[in-house]
Amino acid sequence: MYEIRLHGRGGQGAVLASGLLAAGVVAAGKFAVAIPSFGFERRGAPVAAFVRIDTREIRRMTNITNPDCVLCIDPTVSRTVDIFAGLRPGGTLVQASASAPGEIQVPPTVATVGVCNAVRIAMDIFGRPITNTLMLGALARTTGEVELDALESALAASELRDAGLDQNIEALRRGYAETVVHVVDARRVVQ
Description:
single chain; 5 helices; 23% strand
């Protein structure tokens, strides 16, 4: 089972992204479950969502405390939340950031870093810093857990089909194409 924890801020679409990711994985023939986390979140407050991926049926519906991958769709949320808490050794970070992958400070549990300058791209496409679909493309590029065409299918079937579908598909593709992947230490990669 591959477990992903998504971090963002209220209003950025982290929960929507988790649902789209799960739908894309299912479209590709695997099993997935998206688990939103709701509480006192408000626009701009840190939020989290969770996705489990497997080749067999998933029954566990709890929050993910020890993810294989952390997807952070906001470049500032790591200043207020420990996004690396519980990350498994050999883990992956997919980060929205204008920094180069080697410039991002990561704990020893991180073996692979994927970085996408998602805010800049989102401003180009949407005129707003909404990075969720961009970062799904970055996740696909960094982890290989879901194919880009499966995510496009999930987008086409989603609520976004009536509101900016073409822009979101462009964002997904640019997120994939413009993500830089860096292996921090090949010895830490768990096969």
